[in-house]
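OP here, attaching both records as promised.
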Amino acid sequence: MLFNPNTYDPAHLDDESRRLLRALVAFFEERGKKALVKSYIDRAWYDDFLAFSAKEGLFATFLTPAADGTGDKRWDTARNAALSEILGFYGLDYWYTWQVTVLGLGPVWQSANQTQRERAADLLDEGHVMAFALSERGHGADIYATDMILTPTGDGGFTASGTKYYIGNGNVAGLVSVFGRRADVEGPDGYVFFAADSRHENYHLIRNVVNKQMYVSTFELIDYPVNAVDVLHTGKSAFDAALNTVNIGKFNLCTAAIGICEHAMYEAVTHAHQRILYGKPVTAFPHVRRELTDAYARLVAMKLFSDRAVDYFRSAGPDDRRYLLFNPMTKMKVTTEGEKVVDLMWDVIAAKGFEADTYFDKAAMDIRGLPKLEGTVHVNLALILKFMPNYLFNPAEYAPVPTRHDPADDEFLFRQGPARGLGAIRFHDWRTAYDSRADLPNVARFREQADGFCELLRAHAPSEEQQRDLDFLLAVGHLFALIVYGQLILEKGGVDDHLLDEIFAILIRDFSAYATDLHGKAATTPEQAAWALAHIRRPVVDESREAAVWQQVLALAGAYEMRP
């Protein structure tokens, strides 16, 4: 199930995608671990990686929509996910420059401005990266409040002045998609997205705001000339472009988390199995087996959910926007699961996890950042709650969504339309996936908890006061998210029954933990608290299942080590 550079061959993708991804793996492996670690510690800008990308046309091939390029160029979420996972595997900093290029291109590919579309395609061909300038130090990513002010010049253009903060690639981006507002227009009609160039004399780079190899800039525009041809979106369209860009780019966080955890797991299992304590390998201790098995099962679940979510992105359209639920799920749930995976392994390898020459200590630091990018966990969980009534109680009929590895252009992502109406989105019946594997004891037991959650909402729904209490709602949201998580894991399948049942044993324990949390909330009513206690469950114990999954974990020992 795990990505292994020694055996990697993405046979499910077309020949050019396979060639580029394998070339990327070869680039990192030939560069070697010492260089990878040294550049991370020295916080060295990754010129060699960007030079490789430019030479191979990596970003240009993967990030240019078919309508704006030729040959194998297209925006294909399946292969983009594969690339994102590989970059995460070798280091968050390499993934980050890719991620913010995705975001920087979002407003461009959503725009009808043909001049800027051609410019972006040309810049990608030349090997440039892009930037997405939305956030500001005083407002964060609150796009209702921006102090980037565009003053009309009388000839259809503007001058832009203001400061942007926390802008990845802002030091070198060939094209920076900048969000601002007109000085002469109040309200949403005054929003503007425009294209800037970090090399312009009126673009003033201030500094890197993080102590990292990646460059997360703050910059200031001072009377920056914005011609009519530089404008990407105005008014409500600019607002929608901002949110829809995050819809596209947010997804990549899950695959970064997966890649980070995979590399860290090879190191952790290998170290634990080779280390002898009290005359036995560390992996002989029962608590170590439990923690590593738990970490492995959680990581596989992350991959199953994320892989299946790709299919919904690729099959989306105006009448099927289910991806808008699965997107914040990948951002919130998968990335926080990544933190748990690393923590479990760190408990096993202990002091080894601090050593400078390991990948693990970088993973332990970087995995923390992903749940905090593109909106924090609580923001994404609050978003997920908008879908809950229709998801649980109002299913609709949809044609089955197939596995999507076909070399198609996912052009709908750039015509998502107005960023509203989330509560009206309908879903197919979530119970179908659970019914398909009711033969597995822990799937059946988790289904009991899921059905119980529906009964809670029917009999003891949150009151108006509770619905204004975000702390209470987040506890409810975590319970709901587990049901969604389990559904896509079951739909993806493709793993043996032992492993799948072990994953649901974990979901049962997690549901019980969140129910306990709900029980303890000050806002919880006595009836809701009683429900919470009544729905705590133990997973079905099966020693043969646990032994079989443990053998899968143990097989990781020595299976991969990055070349020196």
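Record two, same layout:
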Amino acid sequence: MSPIRKKDVERFILSDDYKPMVLKELYKKFRAKTREERRKVREVVKKLEKEGRIFRDSRGRYRKLGEDLKVGTIEFTRSGYVAFVITDEFEEIAVPVEDTKYAMHKDRVVVEIAGTWRGLPRGRVVKVLERGLTRVVGVFDHKGTFGFVVPDDPKIAYDFYVAPENIDGAKPNQKVIAEILKYPSPGKNPEAKVVKVLGDLDDPSIDLPSVIVKHDLPEPGEFPEEVIREANSIPAKVRKKDLVGRKDLRDKVIVTIDGEDAKDFDDAISVEKLSNGNYLLGVHIADVSHYVKEGSALDQEAFKRGTSVYLIDTVIPMLPFRLSNGICSLVEGKDRLTMSVEMEIDRDGRVVRYDVYPSVIKSKKRMIYERVNEFLEDPSSMKEYEPFKDLIYNAVELAEILREARRKRGAILDIESDEVKVILDENGQVVDIVPRKRGIAEKLIEEFMIRANETVAEIFDHAGLPFMYRVHEEPDPETIFQLRNYLEAMGIRANFPQNIHPGMLQKLLEKVKDHPLRSSVERLLVRSMKRAMYSAVNIGHFGLASYAYTHFTSPIRRYPDLVVHRLLKLYLEQNGYFTPEQIEKFSKVLPKIAKHCSRRERVADEAEWDLVAMKKVEYIARHIGEVFDVVVTNITKFGLFVEIPEKSISGLVHISTLDDYYYYDETRNMLIGKRKGRVFRLGDVLKVKVMRADKIRGEIDFVLVEEDEE
């Protein structure tokens, strides 16, 4: 009898003839009698299971995944009514919470498709393949001799039982980190043991470690030993041999412009006016790929992290500080290796000529956004920027031309981020929350980076070679319908055609420019649009109205940019050509990198939002009883959601605290008083008093204050 070949076993299991079998039946099919023969069959089964191509059902049979069975990561919502399974292909499947079968947030699961839910496939979990969480962070609560950990994350639907021997000295109302010992099962709560007591709930220093554990992030500044060893072996200065094949731009007037607290400088610019009236824009980006080699320990860790995470005053960097703040950072007065994109741009904002090449620069000045803005208002106030006035004025002129060109092609320009800056004291306590203002300097750097990113993406799009794009899909019609209803409730008429164009949404933003609800409209607009993400397939960027876009300008803090640099270098070295082997390799690997980096970006965003939300509640908790001016941003049957605009702090005025019996008019989105006839609408400006701030739940309650009560 011929020996068992693994590829025959695999071919059979994946064939159309295969019917679900238990392991014994597979042994019988292949006449696997010896220990060695059975091991071969098991290895194939385990491999296919790991790849997510088959799974073992509750009766021990191995089933193939097909049209009705999908594998993905389950993500619960805060409301707890429904969860969503995101497949590896980024397909979304809705799973009602009663069909989640003891799965927990972030688990890898198999779902069976059974109908639809609001236009999405509806599924039920048939198996948990892999648990996504190993630790939870939450509040410890004592019940007699044993305890419970109530997770911070509302997406985790269970409290965790803690046996007496696993309490580790935790006291009620302390924040703890717990290791999961047992996962939920029929009739049983999950179990955990306390591994670290972070501190009391009102201690602001516990917020950062709470967020780090909740989102499973690495500790700030900590890297595996091998990564640190590799980083330490990289020279701290540019050497003579590093300059081979590079254009020397060290005498050119090149500067960096960043925020005051920035430490890693990815990008530098040069701007000249040419005799023909055009502009020569140079965008010079740190050449991280020269130091971080593909497949190295540094590279593997950078891929795993995907991005740097900015948590108020703490950075969890993608690369060790020796690189991110050292040799890769475009520090003033130091030789640094770069990749340069040089573009000649005409008065209409068109790139008429470009060149891309490896270079070496020496930044002449580390400029700061706020100071550049001050200089533009009053040049005499910033004498140190005087020698660079030509560059600054040329940059302002060119940025305005590029911005106008983007406006004409229909890009969405005017979304003013509702980002705030949280100011902490040395103990980590919130001193103040102030809006982040974007001046001319911030906008001009944004314009130059967008143009450089487009230029690099267009090179690969025209060449038809594998590439890593930054894509942004058109919004769903249903979310646009919600936006229209919201605007109508505000008294703003908006006609939305069948095919939405970003230019139409830009006109809408111009319409609400001076409306008190402008930031709410912007937020809803952002929510109505899909997330931008990384993709190996170019479908364009809706928000920027770009037919090809990428991320090339921040390789110190984003892994996709590092990948783009490697592809660009290969393209230049091989004169615009990839070998068939390279094309095959990149076609396989780039979609995987894109999916992973999109996920890591999402985790980083959620961690940043979480920490800021905690600090907002902490800030308002110190202002209980104080009165604030607020804007009504949403109306529900249980009350008014309001926002303190200059702080971006939101909370609820519950209907039970109002001075009348109010009923909710759903069609007009209003609350109407039965006796007095008072009406609350979107956009109303009210005075409210802070009544309650719950940091654990992230809830803030206000009550209405009438003018004569103040």
